[in-house]
Amino acid sequence: MQEIIKHNGIHLNGNGVDMPVESKDNSFNLRMILDQFLAYWYWFAICLIVGVLAAWLYLRYAVPQYKVAAKILVQDEQKGGNAPGEELLSQLQIFNSKSNVDNEVEIIKSRSLMEKVVKDLQLNVTYYTEGRVKKTEEFSRMPFTFRWLNLKDSIGKGITYKLRATDAGYALSKPGYDHDGAWGDTLVLPEGTLYMQRNRAYEMSSEPFLINVVSVDQAVSDYQKLLEVRVPNLQVSTVDLTLTTTIPDKGELILNRLMDFYQRSSVEAKNRIVDSTIAFVDNRLVIVSRELSGVEKEIQSFKQSNELADLTEQSKQLIQGTGEFTKQLTDQQVRLSVINTLEEYIGDEKNNKRIVPAAMIMQDPTFMSLVEKYNNLQMERERLLMANTASNPVVVNTDRQLAGLRGDLKSNLSTIKRGVEVSISELKSRAGSLDSKIRQVPAKERIFLDFSRQQSIKQELYLFLLKKREESAISKSSNLAVARVIDSAKTAALPFSPKRPLIYLLGLMFGVIFPAGWLYLRDTLNRRVSRKQDITNYTPVHILGEIGHSSSRELIVAQQGATSVIAEQFRAMRTNLQFILSGNHEKVILLTSSMSGEGKSFVSVNLAAVLALSNKKVVLMEMDLRKPRISQQLGIPNNIGFSTYAAGQTPLEALIRPSGIHDNCSIISSGPLPPNPSELLMLERTNQLFNRLREMFDYIIIDTAPIGLVTDAQLLARQADATLYLVRQGYTFKEQVQMTRELYYYKKLPRLNLVVNDVKADASNGYGYGYGYGYGYGYNPEANKKGIFRKIKKSFSKV
Description:
Keywords: ATP-binding, Cell inner membrane, Cell membrane, Kinase, Membrane, Nucleotide-binding, Transferase, Transmembrane, Transmembrane helix, Tyrosine-protein kinase. With 799 residues, the protein is of the alpha+beta class.
């Protein structure tokens, strides 16, 4: 075939001759698509049934997933989340703490909090009952408890035990281990110590249990992944907690217990500040009480030894004169004692990570502000350590801030101490003016006055400490959690997975998309002609006729009186030929195809038969000299034929023989296989033969070799008046159909027309009898023998 070059939308052959480009019809044809799908409606029905059944089976055995939700309100002054009563405590200047929602979210998500829940509820032990298809997790109403007294971390992702239990005892097994025992036993296993306890509140099941045991660390990690903690928006201080679980009761218990532990840890953090202050005050009370008791004993001993009953009247004037100075001096000495104590407390490195008892000095607002900042920062550091390590940059930065505040506290205490010492010195100086008067008092009264002064100082300090201890105790009893529960854990009414409507929808989509996709891919990947569009898209050559599929093994189907559909199609093709061969001198019909096996011999024989039935003299020429079949199929000896005639061995009278098809139909066989078929067709005797046959017969039908393989058909085209090009459905390649375009445009074959052979009566392929050029008269006697399924299929195809 000559080389074809595409240039600017025009095909050029090697000689530069224009050949129009035949565009494909890619327009959307809904009817054709529906016909194709409806022709295979049973595939859609089967896939729909399979899809819905698969969806039902999946939903039947899938484990439902539930969402358990809870909500808490965090105390955040910036967002108005303060708890009731906190404002009153703040006015009493009792220990307050500020909270941040984002920090609290991290604490709730912390590993330490989840670890408490896992250990408390033994969540590292999971119970299952075995079904025929799947395992079902059990949680509540268990007839026994599988409690680990201690469990090694080396167990990792876990091990599974199988337990068969009765009221009397149990049989516990795992790979490489079997044990029969009684309830209440304590087992020492490689994984740890196990206590088997019977819960007689529930009846024992006869089915075996599977008990999966994992390490606490693994269980904590698994449940942290199932927990979601988030802040709904930045305008509120609420926190939403969501837990994914397969057992609603278990999920609600876990979430409620998590919130309970979170509130406890929050209160414990506040109480640590109060406990630190109470411990400090108690320690000072012991010391001051001992000192006060010693002074009182000295006064008692002094009075007894000097036989004094009441020195009040004797020293009344002196006490009244020095009372004011004594009171002021006492206050300053009390402050100095407290300052010294706090200075020792802050200077001790053991207390660097502890809370500074802020309630000890109420007189200095600057120092109180520093103490409040220091304590708040200490609390923030402890919260950060719950979710971070000490080496975290944020924790390290907090330690630096604490060190700076500790230095400020020491500096401020030193300043306050110097002021108090100056005040004491000044008071003593002023009191010195009265010492001369005091010296006039008898020595015994002066000694008693010193004792009284010491007693007053110690007693004042003692009462001060008692007052602060009581205030600390009140604040501890009034401490509230950082957050309060708004909504307790509650499971959604329906599982969020799997979604039943979605699964059934996917099953229905499978029932539609899978067969549709299969049909589309089959059509797209199919290289052979299956639809009429496969021909019209590749060639401009018209289709003269369509020959249906014949299940009969008979070569001749267009016989006298035949009423089959195929016989009528050959009659229709005979009628169409009359429009092509309009002149009396036009009587030579050439049949060829792309390759062997497309039905040239079958169509040639039956076309000759149907033409002979119309009282026309027909000669059938078997001109496929390389692979002749007609003579063999008709049972005609092939010892003589065209090859012997062309070689001058056989006269014309002996060449033409009866075909046995019809009295009006003769045949010229191919003869013995020649070594040079193409050269024989070019001889002058060939021209003479056709001239003579035109005089003798009304129609000359030439069955020649495939044009896609050899040039015999093109050589015989000089003798033909019309050409029928055979295309077989499901056999001829689409690329081979495209060959006819060049033959058509270059007029290499005269009056080229297509004949589609072996067409299956199927609406999906764009044919069907009566769909193209064929005609269906309803003569098929098998039309009334269709089964119910074929009738349903036919009714669908007419939608």
